[in-house]
Amino acid sequence: MYQSFAGVYDALMAQVDYAAWAAHYDALMQHCGVKKGAKCVECACGTGSLTLPLKKRGYQMTGVDLSEEMIARAMERARKEGLLIPFIRQDMCLLQLPRKTECILATCDGVNYLTKPEKVQQFFVAAFAALKPGGALIFDVSSAYKLENTLGNNTLTCDEEDFAYIWHNRFDGEKALVHMALSIFHKRPDGAFDRIEETQTQRAHTLEELTLGLHKAGFENVQAFGNMRMTQARQNDERLHICALKPLA
């Protein structure tokens, strides 16, 4: 999925306020009892846009992503900022760590890209096994409301001087899937534009499905917060941040 996409991913996500996201994840981690200095693994870390600021906030971060190109870009960014962060190429559904960790994150729609419920469950089980007792799993999803109503069957566009895209969406209500087709235009140093065609699919997981799966995997104290708030998720929230704890015994 990310063969040529990794090179333009940061430009595509330039409008995302990652500092605010990192601050919110910091608050969620502290809410779950994850202290500064704790070892934390971020799944679906991409180019490290959250891994790096969370490292700066005092957590011992490790990044995990399936894309070799994304990992390479994240490593390059960490080097430039003088941050020592291990990055591992690994499928989050098959997560295996050399030692158990205190916190696992799955950020920026990572769970939405698990388009089959059994893959989500596989990730929950793997995360549970990789956590220390009392450890926290914290992740975010674009809500079913957002995928159906905001992305839905709409077309999104962006037209900047050095970067542009046309983003077509098609929502399959029967399978709860949104299929995305992006045509991305990125300006090269010589003034010409590269065109990159990218297709992606996300699943609209309901909060009920996710909560049931977390409990089935063994987690407890499942909480869902909406739209970057530290308050309970509402029906029309476009983004959910979900926390779950591994029992102490």
**Which homologous superfamily in CATH is the superfamily of the largest domain?**
Vaccinia Virus protein VP39
| Overall outline | globular
Order of strands in the sheet with most strands: 3-2-1-4-5-11-10
* Helical stretch tally: 7
- What is the H-and-E element order? HHEHEHEEHEHEEEEHEE
CATH class of the largest domain reads: Alpha Beta
CATH topology of the largest domain: Rossmann fold
Portion of residues within helices: 25-40%
Distance between the termini: 40 Å
Structural class: alpha/beta
Rounded to an integer in angstroms, the radius of gyration calculated over CA atoms is 18 Å
CATH architecture identity of the largest domain: 3-Layer(aba) Sandwich
Portion in strands: 25-35%
The count of strands amounts to 11
- Overall average residue pLDDT: 92
Instruction: List the uncertain runs.
Output: none
Number of domains: 2
Main sheet attributes: strand count, strand direction, barrel closure = 7 strands, mixed
